[in-house]
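Re: that chain you flagged

S.,

Sorry for the slow reply, it's been a week of failed gels. I finally had a moment to sit down with the sequence you sent. For the record, here it is as I used it:
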Amino acid sequence: MVKPKLDRRLIRNFDIFLLLTVFALQTAGTLTLYSATHSLEGIPDPLHFVKRQLLFIGVGLVLMLLFAFIDYINLKNWAIYFYVTGLLLLGLVLVIGETDKGAMRRIQIGFFDLQPSEIAKVILIIILAKMLSEKEGQLPYFQDLLPALAATALPMILIFLQPDLGTSLIFLVVLLGMLYVAGARSGHLAALIGSGLAATPLFWFYLLKPYQKSRLLVFINPEANPINEGFQLLQSIIGIGSGGLLGKGFLNSTQVRLGYLPDHYTDMIFSVFGEEAGYVGAVVLLLLYFFLIYRILWISTQAKDQFGALLCCGVAVMFAFQVLVNIGMTISIMPVTGIPLPFMSYGNNALLVNLVSIGLVLNVAMRRHKIQF
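Prediction finished late last night. Pasting the structure tokens below so you have them in one place:
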């Protein structure tokens, strides 16, 4: 295995702006997590969730630096091994995984719950970047897209069987985004999207479970069932709306204190933040996400090769989709799919994967042009 070397000359290209943006988001997330969990019943230590989150932030930062300083060309060489390992883990979770809320997504390893579907997201970005960069922007025929489609379909099927609809959708969006950047023809992409839409009735009537259908439809009219499926969404809207312009202040979320909002420190953490920080705070948070995604895309334009550019674009698309869907579902403009908010939602697997993804982008940034001696 190639050991990472701390070349002082690489530091010249280290993107401190990207790192500071991540730190700002992670700080906001940790503070909001404390506000959302410090008064939970049955938890003797008010810092329980924060301590665990900080532990994995530390582990994630180590992994981020590891993936930043190993020359990313090695990832291209190892991509197939990552991919096979990811498939094996996704298959294993269907056999020995623990069931949580009707889904089998985690493998218990000591005090850590391994969630292979999260790891598979970054593995997919790496394998697609390898496959598409080898085409060198030459994708004139539809059959040129088939290897990438197959590479995406295999883990998607395994994840859908868990079932995990939200992560499956992330895979589709990442695929389309990376195909577009790699030079796929707009007509071919339109055909893929059209085929997906045409297959929607099949998924709806034969593959989706009743609770998945309810979650996808509840955002249209949560008042139709305010006690059951619509309860969480209505409480989220109430919380964000009650925050007003400047918010109620840190530790003053009524929805948290009275226990009205389910999943308030995971999928619905933006509701807590919006209630306490208000409209102004929510706008600042959205601007931070905008700058994060903008910076990643800017680094992609500076990459020295297409593999690096595709890595960055895959990460940018992944973050953008998760932010759009998560915040959208808390204000009832997107279906509720259980997608976490990057660097804000509590969740160790997602946190580690997000920091590893930032490490990949920093890697590309540091090697974006030949270093002058």
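What I noticed first: The mean pLDDT is 90.

Talk soon,
D.
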